[in-house]
From TrEMBL:
Swiss-Prot/TrEMBL WD repeat ranges: 88-120, 186-220, 277-309
A GO BP annotation: endoplasmic reticulum unfolded protein response
UniProt-annotated stretches for the region Disordered: 33-77, 426-446
A GO term from the CC aspect: endoplasmic reticulum
Keyword Lyase on entry: no
InterPro entries in UniProt: WBSCR13 (IPR042410), WD40/YVTN_repeat-like_dom_sf (IPR015943), WD40_PAC1 (IPR020472), WD40_repeat_CS (IPR019775), WD40_repeat_dom_sf (IPR036322), WD40_rpt (IPR001680)
Keywords: Repeat, Signal, WD repeat
Protein name (database record): Transducin beta-like protein 2
Entry superkingdom: Eukaryota
First and last residue of the signal peptide: 1-27
Compositional bias of kind Basic residues: 59-71
Keyword Signal set for record: yes
Amino acid sequence: MEGAALVVVSLVIGLLVLAALLALVTAGGKKTQGAEEVTGAGATDNQAVNGEVSEKGPGPKKQKQQQRPRKEKAQQHTFTHQLLAATLKAHSGNVTCLDFSSNGKYLASCADDRTIRIWSTKDFLDREHKSLRANVELDHATHVSFSPDSRAFITCLANGETIRVFKMVKKEDGSFSFSAAPEDFPKKHKAPIINIGIAETGKFIMTASSDTNIFVWDLKGEVLANINTNQMTNAYAAVSPCGRFVASCGFTPDVKVWEVCFSKSGDFQEVARAFDLKGHSAGVSSFSFSNDSRRMATVSKDGTWKLWDTDVEYKKQQDPYLLLTGKFEVMEPCRIALSPDARVVAISSGSNITVYSASKGEKEEEFCNVHSEAITDLAFDVNCRFLVSTGDRAIRVFHNTVGYRAVIEEMKVRLKRATNEGMKERLRQQIADSQSSLDSVYAKKD
C-alpha cells in the first residue's frame, strides 16, 4: 500500500512540473510575438491597409521613412544691370509673346497662365507696375497682337490652334474691360502656330504655322489666301509695320517677302511675291522690319546677322541691298529686333542679349543671363526708348542707350553739313535732348 501511494504522489508531482514547464513555454511564445509586433518584424515598413500606408508603429526609424520630403520652392531668377529700367511681374506662368500698341501707350503680354496683361508704358520708370488682366477661357494664348487703333487685340490659342479676338472698352476711371468675340476663327492650321499679326492698314490678319503654311484672313475670320512657303519648315513669319508685306524664314538660308495686294476700293486682289533676302549660308532663325519697312535685319544659324536696304523697286526686279554683316555667338533659339528708326539691332541668343550699332555693326551692349530660360520674345517700343524681353515669368525693360548715342552721332554729322540756320538749331536741339536722356539714365544708376 505504501508503495502504491508513493507512485501516485510521484505521478502527481511529475504532472505539476510538466504543467509548469508548459506554462513557461507558452508565456515565452506570447512575449516573443509581442516583441515582433512592436518591432514590425515579419511586415514591410510601409504596410498597406485598405490601399493606404499604415502610420502605426512607434520607432524613430520607421517614422522617418514615412515622412514626405519637403518640396523646395524654385528660386526666383534675379537679374540686375545698370541699364535695366524695370522688371514687370504679374504673370504666374511663362510669358511667350509681347506686342506694343501702335500709339506707344500700351504693352500686351501673354503667358501660359491663361491671361493676357496690358501694361502702361508711361509706368515703366515707376516703382510699381500695374497691369490689367484679360482671361483666356478654356485655353491659353501663345501670341498676342494689337489692332491698329489700339482698341482690340488678337491672340493665338495654344490648344485650339486658332485666333480669338478681344475688344478693349475704356471705362470712366481710365481702366479697361475686355470682351472676347462670340466665335473664334475657324481652325485651318494643321501644325502649331508660330506667329500672328495685324496689318497697320487694318485690312488683313496673318497667321503662320511651323509647317509651310501662312494664312491671310480678313478681320471677320474669312481666309483670303493660303501661302505655301516651300521652306520645309517655317521658323518665323511677320507682317511688316507698313502693312503691305508678309515675310517668312525657315529651313532655307533666305527670307521670302510677299506683298498683300488690295484694289483702290479696298477689295483683296492677290498675294504676290515681292523680293527675297539672300546671302546667309544656313537657315534663317528670325528677321525684323524697321517702322517704315525700308530696312530689314536677319539672323542666321551660320553665326551672322545682316542689315538690308529694302527700299527698292521690286516690281522692276530690283533686289535689296546688303548694307552690313555682323557676327554673333549662336545659342538657340535666336531672335533679332531692329529698332523702329533702324539705328539699333538687338539679338537674343539663348538667355543673353547683345545690342549692336546698325550704322557700324559693332557690339555696344551685352546682357547675360537675362532670364532663367531661353528668351521667347524681343522688341523695341515704338518710340525707341526701350528694349523689352521675356523668357520666364518676368518681363525685362532696358534703356535703349545705344539708340540715344546713335542719334547724337547722326545729328552731329548732319550739323556739320547743314547750311540753313534753322536746320542747325533743330539739330542742336535734338542732340541736346538725346544727350539729356542719356545722362539721366546713368545719373539714376550712379
